[in-house]
Request: fold
Amino acid sequence: MLDQNEETPQKLSGQIPRREALKRTALLGFATAVMPTNHLTFDKQREGNPIVEENAKEGTSDWQLTRVRADESGHRMPWIEGYCSAQSVKAGESIDIMVSTNPASTFEIEIFRTGYYGGKGARLMQKMGPFRGKIQPTPASGTKNLHACRWDTTTRLTIPEDWISGVYLGRLTTIPDSESEPYWQSYIIFIVKDDRPADVLFQCSDNTWQAYNRWPNNYSLYTHPQGIQGPWAEVSFDRPYGRQSQFNEIVNDPLSFGSGEFLSFEQPLSFFLEQHGYNITYCSNSDMLTPARGLNCKVFISVGHDEYWDLRQFHSVTKLRDAGVTLLFLSGNSVCWVSPFRSSQLGTANRILFRGGPYGANLAHAAGREKEHGPFPERGPDEGALMGVRNVEPVNGGGDWIITNDEHWIFNGTGVRNGDRIPGLVGWEYHGDPADIPGLQIVAEGYAWVGGDVRQSWSAIVYPGPRGNFVFNASTIFWCQGLSMPPGHTLPWSHWSRPHGPDIRVQKITHNLLQRAINP
Reply:
């Protein structure tokens, strides 16, 4: 760990040090889209890969929202908003779409699969409608401040057999009665999953999207009158996603209505992986209640802000590691809160969750959360035993990702040296306090500045798994900001610090990790 009073070797100055100049010269040898070192292996893994075949199809530039309008609360889009009956669905299965328009308006739905598609970011899969919308009721507050809609179904979508796994957006657009009237838009979002063997399993962090979702008027796990982090509130997936829930502090993206946190914190990873033809499949948090899906893959990825895990997720991912699956935590604040699922009021499984208690076993950080926010009905195991590092207090802040073990293989071909910084990549939440695991190596570490003179240490680690696999923890929500800049993407910021966007070092490190895991 860095000494609390020690400055890192690299400092800002008017001149570029000779070592930095040499490093930059070496980096110029990479193309903007860095490719893996072993091109023959990479080309072979593209053969028969449905992701490559899908991204060869014609994409569209017109998939983003253009006209949005928040109500007075800033949290919802009552002019048109909707939700789906399930977090994820397989080809051949059906998903119900519920939409409300206020005032009642005619509207259409366009379904897009997000991906690379030559840099366009999405492909139009199906257009539905027009439908005659109606005002659907805002639910009254239920037990534990639960807001669960019971809207009438607008339409049922049966997923065609040729729709491959991915994150799908439905763009809802009102159709004005005359050209003198404006149209309004928002999204619905769902995941198409499958059971096929794949190299990479991309787990969307939709439990956390929902935990922070403030729809309809500032109702989330963080807004109960008894306190912001206790077990008193529940949230339901049976409601629209409002505006990106961190918009006051982290990212100002009003064009994300209805998409959870996917566009802000996860799409840059998906865009990058599909750009480079990785054999990838997608799932929701709720699809990891058993290890079955992950056991058909070589790599499991936790991405972005992955804070809320049902205990069954924890045990499933532990089984993946022990079975030889590589784990990449390209995320921060992950596995922080035990979030038990329960069924909806209509009996649909895994549609309601709450903050059941902290992970951390009896360690100090978990005991502190229990003392400050409890009592809680559950306590999760030490997340450090799985992730290699833990959640720390304070967990908010921003800083540079600083290399401290430049001889490690994850840095092969990057040209980095100890003390080199990747600006603003740490934030807005992170991991620290490395666990005592045989073979664990710290590869980067430093401080995140919280405010004023307050700072917190973080650490990025790699440790070996039992079957030639490994676990990597980048220890920052912002890791994928260094991978790509999809159309319409907005860079986040935190505590007067922000990532700079795509960085060839982050790209190369990520390729190194994936290629080592896929082709050990």
